[in-house]
Amino acid sequence: MSEGLATTHGATHHSSLQHHFENMEQQREAGTLGMWVFLVTEIMFFGGMFLAYTLYRAQYPAAFVSASNHLDITLGAVNTGVLIVSSFTMAMAVWSTQVGRPKRTTIICLILTMILGATFLGIKGVEYHDKYNDHLVPGRLIPSRPFAPEVAQPGDTDKHKLHLLEGASVQNVELFYWIYFAMTGMHALHMIIGLGLMTVILILTWRGRFSPEYHAPVEISGLYWHFVDIIWIFLFPLLYLLGRHLEHHG
Amino acid sequence: MVGTALTVLAAFVDFPGPLNAVVALTIAVVKATLVVLFFMHLRYSGRLVWLTIISALLWLAIMFAITFSDYWTRQWQPPTSLF
Fold this sequence. Notes:
The complex is a heterodimer of chains A (250) and B (83).
Chain A: E1 5-8, E2 11-14, H1 24-59, H2 61-70, H3 73-98, H4 103-133, H5 170-206, H6 216-240
Helix pairs in contact in A: 1-2, 1-5, 1-6, 2-5, 3-4, 3-6, 4-5, 5-6
Chain B: H1 2-12, H2 19-39, H3 47-73
Helix pairs in contact in B: 1-2
């Protein structure tokens, strides 16, 4: 009996093939489809928040622009780049398992992906801390530090103060920050879950569980990782860039 | 990466009317499509996966359309002499 093949009840098949599947290809397809269906529910979940964002942005455009312009565009853009590169290294990890590269290649790609993911979360943490410093955490999420940004007077260029455009109210800026923290917070939670998944895949790869015949878990985790990347691709322009062209008019 | 640079640059340009949002979202959609097609192997996937994604987008569109039809029409004058 060759390695990786198991013989039970007279049939020879790959040791990773579950009994309710005809062959490895069918098993892989079913797994991938299942992951896509899960991602559909995730699209609808984030979709609800995108809907809330769109509605309130349409109702309070000036407040949303004022609040958005306070966000750090450099950190946001760097994070977008970090996530896209991490998606690339993830795709390389999937590819390397698929074509049967030595497992060292896959492991390097996975570790790079995890480092980039952690970098993203670190930068996000810096941004959250900036918002905390500027009293921009909405409501009483942090009981000792309620939402109370300092509003800048005309001519004041202090970056830590809130620069309100005409027609923008502080309450509606707070609404923006509720949505900002809800959306980026849920996204960060997905990143943390993703890092957990990567850890599992890394250990399984280390143990040599995957091969070109059996790599569905790597592929499926990759799908999840790319999905989280896509959410950010939309969050970045919507949250950070929506009113940059109005900055000098206010 | 090119898309990210492009979207940041485009954000600082003052396009007329609502075009800024349109430009930003178009770039985002293009980037997302590239990720889905190549990183997520949709290009090499079966029709069932295509169907799943299209149904998701369809239902998302329904959710947006119905909600907006409500908010959009709320300020309209109520009919005064129906009965």
